[in-house]
Amino acid sequence: MSESKKRLRRAPGRAMLLAVMAFFFLGFFLLALKDGKWESFLLSLVVPAIIFVGTAGISRLFPSDRLLLSLTNFLCALGVLVLYRLSPERGMTQAVNYGVGVGCMIFCTFLVRYMPKWKGLSALMMLGSMGLLVLPLLIGRETNGAKNWFYVGGYSVQPSEVVKLALLLCVSYLLSQRKVFWALAFSGSCLFLLMLQKDLGTALLYYGVVLILLYASTTSLPLLLGGVLGGGGAAFAGYRMFAHVRRRVAIWINPWADTDGAGYQIVQSLIAIVNGGFWGVGLGLGNASVIPEYYNDFIFSVILHEFGLLFGLIVLCMYLFIIIRGIMIARRSRTVFHSLLALGCTALIALQTFVIIGGNIKLIPLTGVTLPFISYGGTSMVSSLCVIGLLQGVASRNAAGVHEDRALAQGGDVL
C-alpha cells in the first residue's frame, strides 16, 4: 500500500464520515419504522448522501479539512433530524436548505481558493450589503420586536445572514491592507442599520467579530479596551431605548414571574432540559414542541430533551473542535488576509454558538440569533455553511502551499 493511501486511512475525517452517515441512516430509519411514512425512508438515504457529498465529494475536488467537514455535516444533519421529528414539513424544507447550503459551501471554497484579487469585489460587496440591510426597513415586517426580515413569494429572507459573509471578507481584506478607517466605516454602517432594525443579537455578533479582527490585525490593547467599553455602552443604550430588550432582560432575571406570559418560553425550555435528564427521553418520545420557538431559538433545548445531557455535551464538543480547527487553519495561513478571514469565520461561529446556547440554558439573556447549522431557516443554514466554505477555502490554500513547499524542497517543479 502506498504511503498516501496509508495517510488517508489514518485520517480522522474518514472514520468520522462513516460514523456520521451510519448515525443518521439509523435515526431516520427508526423514525420510518415508527411512523411508516415514505418521507422518513427517503430521508434515511438522502441525508447520508448529502453528508457524503459535503465531505468526501469536496475532498475530491480540492484539499480540505475532512474532520471539519464531517463535524459540520453532523450538526446540519442533526438539525434536519430533530426538526423532521417534531415537524415533518419543516424537516423536509430543512433537508432542501441543507442540500442548497452544501452547494453554496463548495462555491465559497472555490471563491477563496482561486480568487486572485479582492479589491473590486470587496467594493461591490460593501455596496450590496448596504442595500440588503436597508430592505427590511423599507419592506420588512416586525417580528419579536425586530424588523430584520422581508418576504419574497412567501419565503422569508434575513439579509443580515447574507451580509455577515460580506463583513468577514471585506473587513478581513481592508485590515490586511491596513485600511482600518474603511473597515471601521463599513462595519459601523452595518451596525447602524442593524440598530435601526432593532436586531441587537446580530449587531452583537458583528461587533464582536470586528473587534476580534481589529485586535488581531493591530495588536492594540487600548483599541481593544475602547471597543469593549464602547460595546458595553451600546448595550446599555439599547437596553434603555428598546422595550423588547428590557423585557428579555427581565425574563432572564426571573422567568418564573410570568410563567404563562413573557416567561413561558424560557420556563418551558428549562423544564424540557430537566425532563431530558442525562440520557434523554428518546428520539420521537419527547414533547418539547410545547416551546413556541422550538425550531429556531430553542432548538438546543429540544436536543437536550430528546437526546439527553451527555449528547448535548458531545454537540458542544463538536462546536469546540470546529473552533479549534478554525484557529489552526488561521495560524497556518500564508497571507494576512487569509489568516484574518479564517479567524473571523471561527470567531463568528464561536460567538453565535455561545450566545444562543447561553440563552437556552439561562446563562445570558436570549437574543434570538440562530444556532449555527442546526436551527431552522434557509438563510441561516446557507450562510452558516458558506462560512465553513470560506474557512475551507483558506484550508485548501494552506494545503496547496504545503504541496508547493514540499515540491520545491525536493528540487522538483510545482504542479
Topology pattern, helix = H, strand = E: HHHHHHEEHHHHHHHHH
Rg to the nearest angstrom?
22 Å
The backbone outline, from C-alpha atoms, is globular
Counted by DSSP, the helix tally is: 15
What would you call the structural class?
mainly alpha
Largest sheet: spatial strand order:
1-2
**Separation of termini?**
24 Å
Stretches with pLDDT under 50, minimum 5 residues: none
Indicate the percent of residues in helices.
over 70%
Strand elements, count: 2
Average predicted confidence as pLDDT: 85
- Into which percentage range does the β-strand content fall? under 5%
Q: How would a crystallographer describe the biggest sheet?
A: 2 strands, antiparallel
Report what the structure shows:
With 415 residues, the chain is an all-alpha fold. Helix content is 76%, strand content 1%. The chain has helices at 3-10, 12-35, 38-61, 66-86, 88-114, 119-139, 159-176, 180-197, 200-218, 221-241, 243-253, 264-276, 299-332, 336-360, 378-409; strands spanning 150-152, 155-157. It has a two-stranded antiparallel sheet. Strand 1 and strand 2 form a beta hairpin. Helix 3 (38-61) packs antiparallel against helix 4. It is globular, with a radius of gyration of 22 Å.
Concise structural overview:
The chain has helices spanning 3-10, 12-35, 38-61, 66-86, 88-114, 119-139, 159-176, 180-197, 200-218, 221-241, 243-253, 264-276, 299-332, 336-360, 378-409; strands at residues 150-152, 155-157. The protein has 415 residues and is mostly helical.
